[in-house]
Design goal:
71% helix, mainly alpha, rod-shaped, two-stranded antiparallel sheet, 155 residues
Length: 155
């Protein structure tokens, strides 16, 4: 449960930190444009920014989380280690002792592998979020530039 909470908190904090970039810009018609003209210009700038940035805020969703490895952790590693240790211990004359040593070392190795996979997953999620933020930022810059060129003040 602790691992799920950790990944969920990382994902939630990434969304919260990127939330201000998802807000619509404030557009002021500096040249007295009518509401109809404003809507027409906003749509044309949306289309232009989308085509130039490759990002569509109307179809953007939260980045998909990379899939976690379903490989076993400490318990699975311990079971595999115990089996291997029992075989080696039987050859050496004490299967029980070999199984105990194998379970301990297998559990440690399995736990280390699982933590490594979780760290890789968190790094991959962070990279996906950064790429999404960069694409949104590029769209926002293009959209603002278009509106500025049409006589609007954009903040």
């Amino acid at each position: 449960m602790k691992k799920t909470t950790q990944v969920s908190l990382s994902f939630l904090s990434a969304i919260l930190l990127s939330a201000p970039t998802l807000a619509d810009p404030i557009i002021y018609p500096a040249q007295g444009q009518t509401n109809q003209q404003i809507e027409q210009d906003k749509y044309q700038c949306y289309s232009w920014a989308k085509n130039n940035s490759g990002f569509d805020p109307m179809n953007a969703s939260a980045p998909a989380a990379p899939q976690a490895s379903s490989g076993g952790g400490a318990v699975s590693g311990a079971a595999k280690g115990a089996a291997t240790g029992a075989i080696i211990g039987a050859i050496a004359g004490d299967a029980g002792k070999g199984a105990a040593i194998g379970a301990a070392s297998g559990g440690l190795m399995g736990g280390m592998r699982k933590r490594g996979a979780q760290k890789q997953q968190a790094q991959a999620q962070q990279q996906v979020q950064q790429q999404s933020n960069a694409a949104r930022s590029e769209y926002d810059r293009a959209y603002s530039a278009c509106l500025n060129g049409r006589g609007y003040t954009v903040k």
